[in-house]
Amino acid sequence: MVTTAPRVIVVGGGAAGFFAAIACAEANPAARVVLYEATAHPLAKVRVSGGGRCNVTHACPEPRELVKRYPRGGRELLGAFHRFGPRDTIAWFAARGVELKTENDGRMFPITDDSGTIVDCLRRTADQAGVKIYMPIGVRRIERGEAGFDVEFTDNSVGEFDRVLIATGGTKGSAGQTIAAQLGHTIEPPVPSLFTFHIDDPRIRGLEGLSVPAAATSVPGTKLKDSGGLLITHWGMSGPAILKLSAWGARELSERGYKFNVVVSWAEGRTVAQTHETLIAARLANLKKQIATWNPFALPARLWERLIIAAGITPETVWTSVSNNSLHALATQVAAAEFTVEGKSLNKEEFVTCGGVRLREVDFKTMESRVCPGLHFAGEVLDIDGITGGFNFQAAWTTGWLAGRAMSGVEQT
Ligand SMILES: Cc1cc2nc3c(=O)[nH]c(=O)nc-3n(C[C@H](O)[C@H](O)[C@H](O)COP(=O)(O)OP(=O)(O)OC[C@H]3O[C@@H](n4cnc5c(N)ncnc54)[C@H](O)[C@@H]3O)c2cc1C
User: Fold this and answer.
1) What is the DSSP string of 347-367?
2) How far from 386 is each of 69, 75, 196, 238, CA to CA, in Å?
């Protein structure tokens, strides 16, 4: 039921802002919804996301499972995902002519493999719903006025609104966070979340592009551990086994100045003792072969050779001549190889920041501020971040949709 014709302003034309503006205008066609984008490029991150393909969401429909993919925000998002989760995202886009497909690892992309499909869909739908978009005009200041909010824009114009959504993303020191702080919110300090590790080590030097499908990673002296594919890069290591570690350890690793050690098992799920036994069995089965020519872990040959050298074994040595002690050293290189991390790089495929508006100051049913009624938040401006795989956009769609519906003034069912 339509209760009012609220004047609604959405600040920020990213995934969360567009989704919210559309949800608001569709729920209440009488609402006057405007969206302000500071740059001339709305939805810029959607366009570059997922290597230009846009990893829209993840095939993980069960909210209890889904929230495990959020180092920050999982608890608060549980109820929100029951109201609008990946299934709703898929249906939302399908209803507007965009089919999504699922890849083997659960990531979902438009069947066109082109992020432009998502950008066009959002822009077209916003247009059809009657959302008025202003750009490049940013919001400079927001104050609580007599009957709502007084907003000042970067072109020096001003406006008055009943409801405000801040969806300005997670950029460090963004205007959205400053405005939120001025309106009484606490800002958790922003630090990068998904990042790759700088490692200069002879075991991986020159092996860029090489990957291992099932590695396990951990950081000694912390509880951080994860698993998944590991990619050797020009600068060190990347891939899900590293990126997930970086997300869960975002604050801890930042506090250490990104200088720490990482232990890699190149063959996930094996202890050093089990690996040693496997190597002893391999020696029996391959007595006369050179150790570098075959490995029982299906590791890439060039990496295997580096691990052999790191264990102090000459690659040409025949298996039968390798001592138990040397095999133990090799088992350690396979199952618990320690590397020194000397810094971080942004992950080109997807990067996010953690930090932002403190979550307990926001009601996750409506995304409305608990300290400033009428003010709402959605997307990365909040202290929410997911691991890589479409989880960050899902959080943006969910929080945007909830905020938009709530701002529309239409009674929630
Ligand atoms: C390279 C890259 C690839 C990524 N790939 C993926 C992926 O495949 N899947 C996934 O789930 N996540 C991905 N992410 C993360 C995802 O893009 C973000 O989590 C998501 O875009 C957050 O949406 P948002 O709307 O909150 O913020 P943003 O997309 O950052 O949008 C915020 C908008 O607000 C505008 N703005 C800021 N201040 C003001 C102001 N004062 N006035 C008006 N406008 C303002 C900004 O210009 C911007 O357009 C990727 C990120 C990057 C950087």
Assistant:
1) -SS---EEEEE-GGGEETTTT
2) 6, 12, 15, 17
Structure token pair of residue 317: 């040595």
Position 2 confidence tier, pLDDT thresholds 50, 70, 90: very low
For residue 314, the CA-to-ligand 1 centroid distance in Å is 50
Residues lining ligand 1, Cβ inside 6 A = 11-17, 36-39, 42, 44-45, 48-50, 54-55, 138-139, 167-169, 174-176, 350-352, 379-380, 390-393, 396
Q: Report whether pLDDT(151) > 80.
A: yes
Class of domain 7-191+349-407: alpha beta
Distance from the alpha carbon of residue 331 to the mean position of ligand 1, in angstroms: 43
Angle (CA) 398-400-402 rounded to 5° is: 70
pLDDT in tens, 10-36: 999 999 999 999 999 999 999 999 999
Domain boundaries, the chain: 7-191+349-407, 196-346
pTM score, two decimals?
0.90
Dump pLDDT digits (tens) for 22-72.
999 999 999 999 999 999 999 999 999 999 999 999 999 999 999 999 999
Pocket test for ligand 1, best of 153, 154, 168 (most atoms within 8 A of CB): 168
Position in ligand 1 atom list of the atom nearest CA 43: 49
% of the chain beyond a pLDDT of 90: 90
What type of residue sits at position 380?
E
Q: What is the pLDDT of residues 116-125, one digit of tens each?
A: 999 999 999 9
For residue 274, what is the enclosing H or E element? helix 272-285
Residue nearest to atom 19 of ligand 1 (CA): 392
